[in-house]
Amino acid sequence: MGVRGVRGAITVEVDTREEIVSSTKWLLEEMVSKNEIAAEDIASIIITTTEDVSATFPAQAARLLEGDGWQYVPLMCAREIPVPGGLPMCVRVMMHVNTDKQAKDIQHVFLRDAVKLRPDLTNR
After folding, report:
1. Three-state DSSP class for 120?
2. Which of 20, 28, 66, 121 could form a disulfide with 108 if both were Cys (CB 3.0 to 4.6 A apart)?
3. Residue 67 contacts residue 38 (beta carbons within 8 Å)
4. Which residues lie across from 48 on neighbouring strands?
5. 94 pairs with which residues across the strands?
6. pLDDT in tens, 18-49
7. Which domains can be identified in the chain, with CATH numbers?
8. Contact assessment for residue 68 and residue 39, using Cβ atoms and an 8 Å cutoff
9. Mean pLDDT, rounded, for 104-120
10. What count of other Cβ atoms lies within 10 Å of the Cβ of residue 37?
11. Are residues 66 and 120 in contact, defined by beta-carbon separation less than 8 angstroms?
């Protein structure tokens, strides 16, 4: 069994704790659902935010997910590189998963305006 990265991103409407947590929770739910991932198979998750998303740590969303094992998933939040012209109000996720799936079989998830980041992956 190898480790694969599952990418995901979502934009938030406003910089509030409730919006950041609920949006990140939705994104994580979609990522695990589309890829049939169990929490025990997640090696780690790195979550980044753009500079305009700062009301809370989006990793708090993982603690709200149902199912055994989420309390053991290592999580880290970081700041996205502030590239001029980059997509604002964005939460990005890189989930490292123990899986036998091939890279081409991983379903990356981009929600709301984040579909602009990788249209080649969202139209599969």
Report:
1. helix
2. 121
3. yes
4. 78, 92
5. 7, 46
6. 999 999 999 999 999 999 999 999 999 999 99
7. 2-122 (3.30.1330.40)
8. yes
9. 93
10. 20
11. no
